[in-house]
């Protein structure tokens, strides 16, 4: 994993010291809120409904045990003993006091972490595949490229005041686990027919008010051209992007209004200009970074412990079947720890849970943890013989829920329980749906189904990309929930379609229940997933179960 | 015809804690909506908002929120303000917890 060099360390320390002074000046009355707000946002500090919120970057979702323990320590010392993992692979603390934040940032710097560029119109935390370095379908570990982009974009003087925020993701697999097509810019490491690797560059994806699927800007960029090319994209966006209207400021609108071909031509022009200024140092740097991401030192051990537990313990077997994924090393598995225990807040972990996950990573998983955009935690490299012990420890702290990819593995943004921008709540809707399907004991029969909930049109909960999406709105002063169907965040990315009129707060859970039970009747076989059934049948039969009154009315 | 004026409270977040606060009759800040001053005259509400907004060393983001007279002081007119006055619904944190400890 990447280790800070002296420059990184000095930079982070200087930033934290600066912010400490800024907070002092704010409290002393020497800075107004208007002056202070952009400064605190640059350091990831928001003001939410009930309190400040500190958003900490977890670059490409990778953490070690020491860092996870430090997050637990911060949660206990300055917050309410828990943290919320987000769809951008960040962690948010919901209750810090303004005057404690400099200490929190110092504590983060102690473990090479920070909250820079987790807000504001800059290049945000670079995200990646949470199975990176372990997935069977990947060409190479995408994280060195993500780290290169992180270093290049950190405090880049030209890109601190973009027209709007800019999100970058990096992937290297057939199967897209990083929602690449919903990013302002995405880099996919690909291989051509000659066996060479290069980059497919996607641009203009994004959710929010105007959801768009990213388009291919370059199908196969030579590796040494990455930084100048991405810089050219940013420069074109910085010049062309609209600043007259916040809702039209993202690059997806720039691409949409100008057309992908025009953008490509402008990028090529800019690229030709700046390419000669890149001396090749970036390639040396990439090589250096690569050395920080070695393959784990795999252990060889018998698998009996795993096989015995799998044969004899049905609870373990269910967890193993649901939460494990194939690893490049056949003796290993990727274990996903669900932060979606039925009835709990999606993405939240208590400090005790964080410590247990840190201990497990250290003892059994080559000291690596990942945060997924689906708000779960992953142990990417686990020798199978350790799985029964891991499962037992997880069970003891409420982390052994066997529901990855199922109906209760819901993405939910903070919504109106915390977020100042929200138009309705998301968390309680997620809690109730999960609890209801747990009561019905149907989860495993229903199979793969992704429900995603956002508390406003900004779509932090990726509702457009849920097989079932739920969007909370304020309709004449009451919470109202709109359902979208058929969204998909994978390599076959699709934006869900609105099903019809919204549902009141007390109607939304029954509506989802009707919809899912209706699907069970509609599917051809237990193997046909909700999304496949939707694609085969279209929206109509699903709408009919959602709105039974409309059907009777039409029939009458 | 001019629409009937919905009564207002002046609310903001505390500079240090971030906690929701309300302006009282005597121009101080309280953490309880029930102790807030309720303004029924638009000009008065605007004047008190300017007064509040000027206190940048004490509060952040002052604005006028719709409220209604209740039995023991103002009550929220909109669910957003109800959450601000109570705390989140997933944990017993924030004002609801403070109220129990008081
Ligand atoms: S989707 Fe809206 S409510 Fe949810 S976190 Fe984003 S801005 Fe807040």
From TrEMBL, chain A:
Xref: InterPro entries: NIR_SIR_4Fe-4S, NiRdtase/SiRdtase_haem-b_fer, Nit/Sulf_reduc_fer-like_dom_sf, NO2/SO3_Rdtase_4Fe4S_dom, NO2/SO3_Rdtase_4Fe4S_sf
Record bears the keyword tRNA processing: no
Domain Nitrite/Sulfite reductase ferredoxin-like: 52-110, 346-397
Short name of any one Pfam family annotated for the protein: NIR_SIR_ferr
KW Metal-binding (keyword) present: yes
Location of the Nitrite/sulphite reductase 4Fe-4S domain: 119-271, 409-546
Keywords assigned by UniProt, alphabetized: 4Fe-4S, Heme, Iron, Iron-sulfur, Metal-binding, Oxidoreductase
GO molecular function terms listed in the Swiss-Prot or TrEMBL record: 4 iron, 4 sulfur cluster binding; heme binding; metal ion binding; sulfite reductase (ferredoxin) activity
EC numbers on record: 1.8.7.1
Source domain of life: Bacteria
PANTHER family, A to Z: BLR3264 PROTEIN (PTHR32439:SF9), FERREDOXIN--NITRITE REDUCTASE, CHLOROPLASTIC (PTHR32439)
Protein name: Sulfite reductase [ferredoxin]
Phylogenetic classification of the source organism: Bacteria, Pseudomonadati, Pseudomonadota, Alphaproteobacteria, Rhodobacterales
From TrEMBL, chain B:
Pfam short name (any one): DUF2849
Highest taxon above the source species: Bacteria
InterPro entries: DUF2849
Descriptive protein name: Uncharacterized protein
Lineage start: Bacteria, Pseudomonadati, Pseudomonadota, Alphaproteobacteria, Rhodobacterales
């Amino acid at each position: 994993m990447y280790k800070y060099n002296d420059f990184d360390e000095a930079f982070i320390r200087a930033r934290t010291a600066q912010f400490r002074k800024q907070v002092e000046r704010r409290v002393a009355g020497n800075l107004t809120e208007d002056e202070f707000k952009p400064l605190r946002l640059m350091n990831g500090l928001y003001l939410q409904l009930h309190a400040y919120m500190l958003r900490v970057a977890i670059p490409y979702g990778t953490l070690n045990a020491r860092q996870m323990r430090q997050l637990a320590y911060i949660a206990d010392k300055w917050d309410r003993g828990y943290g919320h993992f987000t769809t951008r692979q960040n962690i948010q603390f919901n209750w810090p006091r303004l005057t404690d934040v400099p200490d929190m940032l110092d504590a983060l710097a102690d473990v090479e972490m920070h909250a820079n560029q987790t807000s504001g119109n800059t290049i945000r935390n670079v995200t990646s595949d949470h199975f990176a370095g372990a997935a069977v379908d990947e060409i190479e570990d995408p994280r060195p490229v993500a780290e290169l982009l992180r270093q290049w974009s950190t405090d880049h003087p030209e890109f601190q005041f973009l027209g709007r925020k800019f999100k970058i993701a990096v992937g290297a697999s057939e199967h897209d686990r990083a929602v690449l097509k919903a990013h302002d810019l995405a880099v996919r490491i690909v291989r051509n027919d000659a066996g060479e690797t290069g980059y497919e560059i996607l641009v203009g994806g994004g959710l929010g008010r105007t959801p768009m699927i990213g388009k291919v800007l370059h199908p196969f960029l030579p590796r040494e051209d990455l930084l100048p090319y991405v810089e050219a994209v940013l420069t074109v966006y910085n010049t062309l992007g609209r600043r007259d209207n916040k809702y039209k400021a993202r690059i997806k609108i720039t691409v949409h209004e100008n057309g992908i071909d025009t953008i490509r031509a402008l990028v090529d022009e800019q690229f030709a200009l700046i390419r000669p200024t890149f001396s090749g140092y970036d390639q040396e740097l990439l090589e250096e970074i690569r050395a920080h991401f070695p393959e784990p030192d795999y252990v060889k051990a018998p698998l009996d412990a795993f096989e015995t537990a799998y044969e004899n313990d049905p609870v373990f077997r269910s967890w193993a079947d649901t939460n494990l994924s194939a690893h490049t090393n056949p003796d290993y598995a990727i274990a996903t720890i669900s932060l979606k225990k039925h009835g709990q807040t999606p993405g939240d972990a208590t400090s005790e849970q964080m410590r247990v996950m840190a201990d497990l990573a250290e003892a059994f998983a080559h000291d690596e943890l990942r945060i997924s955009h689906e708000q779960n935690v992953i142990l990417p490299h686990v020798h199978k013989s350790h799985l029964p012990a891991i499962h037992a420890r997880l069970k003891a702290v409420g982390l052994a829920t066997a529901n990855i990819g199922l109906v209760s593995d819901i993405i939910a943004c903070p919504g109106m329980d915390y977020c100042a921008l929200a138009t309705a709540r998301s968390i309680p809707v997620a809690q109730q749906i999960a609890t209801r399907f747990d009561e019905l004991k149907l989860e495993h029969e229903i199979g793969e189904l992704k429900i995603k909930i956002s508390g406003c049109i900004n779509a932090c909960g990726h509702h457009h990309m849920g097989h079932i999406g739920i969007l909370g709105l304020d309709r004449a002063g009451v919470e109202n929930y709109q359902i979208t169907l058929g969204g998909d965040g994978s390599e076959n990315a699709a934006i869900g379609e609105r099903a019809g009129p919204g549902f009141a707060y007390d109607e939304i859970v029954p509506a989802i229940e009707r919809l899912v039970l209706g699907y069970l009747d509609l599917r051809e076989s237990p193997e046909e997933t909700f999304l496949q059934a939707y694609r085969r049948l279209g929206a109509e039969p699903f709408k009919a179960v959602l709105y039974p009154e409309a059907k009777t009315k039409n029939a009458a | 015809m001019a629409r009937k004026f919905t009564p207002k409270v002046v609310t903001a977040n505390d500079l240090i804690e971030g906690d929701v606060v309300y302006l009282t009759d005597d121009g101080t800040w309280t953490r309880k909506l029930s102790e807030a001053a309720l303004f029924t005259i638009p000009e008065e509400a605007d004047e008190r908002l300017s007064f509040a907004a000027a206190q940048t060393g004490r509060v952040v983001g002052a604005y006028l929120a719709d409220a209604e007279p209740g039995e023991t002081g103002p009550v929220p007119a909109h669910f957003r303000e109800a959450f601000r006055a109570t705390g989140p619904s997933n944990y017993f944190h924030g004002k609801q917890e403070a109220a129990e400890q008081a």
